[in-house]
Amino acid sequence: MRPELAALDASIEGEVIYPESPEYESVRRPAWTQYENVRPVAVVRCRTPTDVAGSLAVARRLDLEVAPRGGGHCFAGRSATGGLVIDLSPMSSVAESDGIATVGAGARLGEVDERLAKDALAIPAGSCPAVGIAGLTLGGGLGILGRTYGLTSDQLVQAQVVLAAGSWSVMSAERRGCSGRYAAPVRASSASSPASRSERCPLRT
C-alpha cells in the first residue's frame, strides 16, 4: 500500500479500495468484458467533490493515469485504467426543481428516470438503466425522445467539475469548458421535458 493512498483514505469521506481489499474485484471492473482484466492501482469511491479533488492530487503526485467512472459503460475504455479509478457512484443524488434536474455524477439513468417520472418529466436519454448519466451526457446521449428534444447533452444547463489541477469550476452555456478527459464532473443540471409513460420508456434495473 502506497503511503500517499493510505493518507488519502484517511482524509476523505469516501474510501480507497486496494487490490488486497475483499471488494476490489467487484468494484474494479467496468461494465464491458473487454476491459475486465484491467487492474487499477486503487479505486477511490468518492462521496464529495473534495474527495475527487484529493484523488486527483494524489494521482498527480504518483504520476498515475486517472479514469473517472460513473456507470463504467464507456466503449472506448475510459472507465478503466491501470492507474487510479475515481468511482463517482456514491455521488448519486437526483433532485428536480422548476423543470431542472440536478444530479450527482454517479447517478444512473434508471435513478434519474424514476425520480423525474414522479412529475411526469424526462430527460432524453438512453434505454439502459445502469448507464451513468454523466458519461452519457458527455458522450452526447441518444434515446427514444431524441427526435423531439434532441440529445442528452443538449439539455445540459450547468455542470460542476473538478479540473485536473484540483480546482473546481462551473461550466455553462456562457462559460464553456472541456471534455471528461480533462476534468471530472461531479454535479450537473439539465432541463427536463414533459413526457408520458409511453414516451419515457420506463427503465427497470
Structure notes:
This protein has 205 residues and is α+β, with helices and mostly antiparallel strands. The chain has two domains: 3-87, Uridine Diphospho-n-acetylenolpyruvylglucosamine Reductase, domain 2 (2-Layer Sandwich); 94-200, 2-Layer Sandwich (Uridine Diphospho-n-acetylenolpyruvylglucosamine Reductase, domain 3), CATH 3.30.465.10. It is 25% helix and 24% strand. The protein is built from seven helices and eleven strands. A five-stranded antiparallel beta sheet has the order 5-6-10-8-9. A four-stranded mixed beta sheet has the order 1-2-4-3. Strands 7-11 form a two-stranded antiparallel ribbon. Helix 1 (3-11) packs antiparallel against helix 3 (49-62). It is globular. The protein starts with a helix and ends in a 5-residue tail after the last helix. The model has no long low-confidence stretch (mean pLDDT 88).
Flag low-confidence runs.
none
CATH class of the largest domain: Alpha Beta
Main structural class = alpha+beta
Q: What's the assembly state of these chains?
A: single chain
Strand order of the largest sheet: 5-6-10-8-9
Global geometry: globular
The CATH architecture of the largest domain is 2-Layer Sandwich
Tally the helices: what do you get?
7
State the total count of DSSP E strands.
Answer: 11
Using the CA coordinates, give the radius of gyration: 17 Å
Provide the domain count. Answer: 2
> What's the average pLDDT?
88
Fraction of residues in helices?
Answer: 10-25%
